[in-house]
Design goal:
Number of helices: 7
Shape: globular
Structural class: mainly alpha
Helix content: over 70%
Order of helices and strands: HHHHHHH
Number of strands: 0
Distance between the termini: 15 Å
C-alpha cells in the first residue's frame, strides 16, 4: 500500500475545520454576555452587532478555510474512484462548503435573531437556503453512491445517513420545541454537517486509497 501523499495529509484539515467550528461557538459564547446557547442560534454569535463578532467571525473564517480545503482535496482524491453518483455527491458537498464560506462572509446577520434587512434576507433565505439544499442533495447522493458501492464505501454511506437524519431533526425540532430550546434543536443540523466535514476529510486521509487498493488487489488475485 502506497504511503500518504501531501494531499492525503492536508485532508486532515477537515478535522481542523470541526475543531475551529466548536471553538467559534464556545469562545464566541464566552465573549457574548448573556448569550444562551439553548435558545439562541449559532449565527447570533457572528451577527455584526454582537459583542462576540470579532472573535467568533475570525474563528468561523478559519473553519470555512479548512472545510473548503479538505472537501476540495477529497474531490481530487476521489477522481476515477467509486461510482459517478458518489463522486457527484462529494463534488456538491465541496460546492456547499464554498457557498457557505463566501455567502456567510458577505452576508452576516446584522442583529441577533432576524432584523429583516437586505443582508439578513440574503443570510437567512438565500445563503442558508442554498446551503441546506446543497447539503441535503450532496449527502443523499453520497448515501446512494456509497450503498451502491457497498463493498468499498458502505461505511461512508452510513455516516452520511446519520448526518442526514440529524440535519432533518434540526428544522423539525426548531419548529416544535419552545423558543427556550430553539438553539438546542438548531445545533443538530449545524453540528452534523461540521462533523461530516471531519469524517470526509478522514476518509480522504485514510480510507479512500486503502479501499480502492484492497479492492483492486482482491480482484487481481
Amino acid at each position: 500500500m502506497k504511503g500518504k501523499t501531501l494531499t492525503n495529509w492536508l485532508c486532515l484539515s477537515g478535522i481542523a475545520s470541526l475543531i475551529f467550528y466548536i471553538l467559534h461557538t464556545v469562545v464566541g459564547a464566552m465573549n457574548y454576555p448573556g448569550y444562551d446557547w439553548r435558545s439562541q442560534a449559532v449565527s447570533d454569535l457572528t451577527a455584526t452587532d454582537a459583542p462576540s463578532f470579532v472573535v467568533a467571525n475570525g474563528l468561523t473564517s478559519i473553519h470555512h478555510l479548512f472545510a473548503c480545503l479538505s472537501s476540495v482535496l477529497v474531490c481530487i482524491i476521489i477522481q476515477g474512484k467509486g461510482n459517478k453518483v458518489l463522486r457527484i455527491g462529494i463534488y456538491l458537498f465541496a460546492v456547499m462548503n464554498w457557498v457557505s464560506a463566501i455567502g456567510y462572509t458577505l452576508f452576516p446577520l446584522t442583529h441577533s435573531g432576524y432584523a429583516g434587512t437586505f443582508q439578513d434576507v440574503m443570510h437567512v433565505y438565500v445563503v442558508t437556503g442554498g446551503v441546506v439544499v446543497l447539503s441535503i442533495v450532496s449527502i443523499s447522493l453520497i448515501i446512494i453512491g456509497g450503498f451502491k458501492d457497498h463493498k468499498k464505501y458502505q461505511s461512508l454511506a452510513i455516516w452520511a445517513a446519520v448526518t442526514l437524519v440529524f440535519m432533518i431533526i434540526g428544522p423539525i425540532g426548531t419548529s416544535i420545541v419552545p423558543n427556550a430550546y430553539f438553539g438546542i434543536a438548531e445545533r443538530f443540523s449545524v453540528y452534523s454537517v461540521a462533523v461530516f466535514n471531519a469524517v470526509l476529510g478522514l476518509y480522504g486521509f485514510v480510507f479512500i486509497d486503502r479501499v480502492e487498493e484492497n479492492f483492486k488487489y482482491r480482484k487481481d488475485v
